[in-house]
Design a protein that fits this description.
The structure is a homodimer.
Chain A lengths: L13 E5 L7 H7 L1 E4 H4 L3 H9 L7 E4 L9 H6 L5 E4 L9 H7 L2 E3 L6 H17 L1 H9 L3 H4 L12 E5 L3 H12 L3 E5 L10 E2 L3 H6 L3 E4 L13 H7 L4 E4 L8 H9 L5 E4 L18 E3 L8 H19 L7 E3 L1
Parallel strand pairs in A: 1-2, 1-3, 3-4, 4-5, 6-7, 6-9, 7-8, 9-10, 10-11, 11-12
Antiparallel strand pairs in A: 5-13
GO cellular component, one term (chains A, B): cytosol
Keywords (chains A, B): NAD, NADP, Oxidoreductase
Pfam families (chains A, B): 2-Hacid_dh (PF00389), 2-Hacid_dh_C (PF02826)
């Protein structure tokens, strides 16, 4: 990486950078690539892409930020036909049309395991928070109610709780490892059973929910997992059940979740992701049995730095004709 | 326990029950003992104790609730000279004058390990909360700021963090076990090194703080540990340091902690206990880098039930002349 002293500086390859306003990473990128930055351009997306495509050396790679700001689909790829590689800043690639990329032979990489430990930590933190009512007790203290009203309402213990994890990939496995240390009993649903773990496998999410007191959504969002936590699954989880979602908002039927919470048909929820984020259903904002974070499970100072390095390595691999570090489509 | 069918019912022994208003446990106690309940009596403590002492069969045992409502000291023991056994509802017995009890031959039992796992869970939950800014991000979401201001400020990761635990007893050990699963590096201070663990031992709390990014207070409160987290220790912990306290408020010099937080000389704190609870220093109530819970680390539905059984077993052991289950003074 970089230029050896004495060699003439390499011409930096052009890279499209599709990000949200205020999102980081561009500085380090600028040191390695000629960055065509969607936000810095100040142009609407269509005009920005047209200008990029019209350059004498149009970009062959694009970094696409997760979070739904731009969907890399057929019309996106049509707009800049030079693009042969997409690198997602997220582990999930639901914002990239993989079928279309495969058809065109466009390589796709994701963020690999850069975020996994932080997301697992956040998931477990949210579960402790919901079940032990930490944020709710926090509000009670900050409002000055402790001296007035005395003890705060009891939560439940974690030990012995049956936790059903939907999606036992890298993140799900790290959540399981942490929750084992709390004495939880781990069950899981995944595309298939994993030989590497002794946890009980449930081929059906409904059955998993029936056997669980906590349901953790840690799967990728795709056709099969959209609204996988349905009204029926919430019903199966039951009135003492808690839902944690650190995957994607649309893996839960959010409208049904809100109704179940309002009607006390489940006990609580910890949600880092939402179907139409940053919009959060207003009914949730006044509930004491939910913990709501702004898609921040992935964000730490350390993961930001790791991601930056990871993005650059994937792009450098692509430009030097080497295999991507974390290919979703090679 | 209980009466065998056919035998005449045993006369239930009298037990003093010193509790806070609204505190639970009395129902199950009533089934086994003639409970003299400080709250139900409606009398001031002195009158209540005098009335108990004047009974034809005065109580030989007392249950003393933790939380500082009554201190079982020489004047307390003088008021009801029949008392030969004190059972604390807490693991800590800083509300019981042990030297005075020892001098008089009054047996003392605590709550043993009934709460340990729940307290450890809460400590870890608070640490995740502080370091990942969960409660603060929660407020950001509930105030509707996410769509307006975008990404919330980054927290730090847990993995690799050096955590110094003050007091590696039952609770401290369970905290360590959980944090190992998060990839933290555990150091500790205790009365002496423990052969059973491989964590690095620091005989001095100041040195422990110097080598730690997180300091967890999990020790008993006594003369040696009062204000063990002093101004100097906070200084040694440093500007990136986080303090978690699930022990007793007075183990930290609270006034110095507030100053250190205000001046940014430490990064944050998660506090379940306070020097003058339920009073919480008002400066803390507006800080976003602290998490404040109302001495609720011990409280779960399950621990309440376990405690009740544990109290009854200790009392029945005492009344039948058997060894206490969890003696502090035998």
């Amino acid at each position: 990486m970089g230029t050896t002293a004495g060699e003439p500086p390499a011409v930096h390859p052009a890279v499209l950078f599709i990000r949200r306003p205020g999102a980081p990473f561009s500085n380090a990128m600028h040191q390695r690539f000629r960055v065509l930055d969607s936000v810095a351009s100040g142009e609407p997306l269509a005009a920005f892409l047209a200008a990029a495509a019209a350059k004498p050396d149009p970009p062959r790679a694009a970094v696409i930020m997760g979070g739904g700001v731009v969907r890399a689909d057929a019309s996106f790829l049509d707009a800049v036909l030079s693009i042969r590689c997409l690198v997602s800043t997220a582990a999930g690639v639901d914002h990239i049309d993989l079928a279309e990329c495969a058809r065109r032979g466009v390589a796709v990489a994701n963020s690999g395991t850069v975020y996994s430990a932080d997301v697992a930590d956040h998931a477990v933190g949210m579960l402790v928070d919901v079940i032990r009512r930490v944020s709710a007790a926090e509000r009670f203290v900050r409002r000055g109610l402790w001296p007035v009203q005395g003890d705060y309402a009891l939560g439940s213990t974690l030990r012995g709780k049956r936790v059903g994890i939907i999606g036992l990939g890298n993140i799900g496995s790290l959540i399981a490892k942490r929750l084992e240390a709390f004495g939880c009993v781990i069950h899981y649903n995944s595309r298939g059973p994993k030989d590497s773990v002794a946890y009980k496998y449930f081929p059906d999410v409904h059955d998993l929910a029936s056997e669980s007191e906590v349901l953790v959504v840690a799967c990728a969002l795709n056709k099969e997992t959209r609204h996988v936590v349905s009204k029926d699954v919430l019903e199966a989880l039951g009135t003492d059940g808690i839902v944690i979602n650190i995957g994607r908002g649309a893996s839960i039927d959010e409208a049904e979740l809100v109704i179940a919470l309002k009607e006390g048909r489940i006990a609580g929820a910890g949600l880092d992701v939402f179907e139409n984020e940053p919009a959060v259903p207003s009914d949730l904002l006044s509930m004491d049995n939910v913990v709501l974070t702004p898609h921040s499970a992935v964000f730490t100072l350390e993961s930001r730095s790791d991601l930056c390095e990871h993005l650059i390595c994937n792009l450098e691999a692509f430009f030097s004709g080497k295999p991507l570090l974390t290919p979703v489509l090679p």
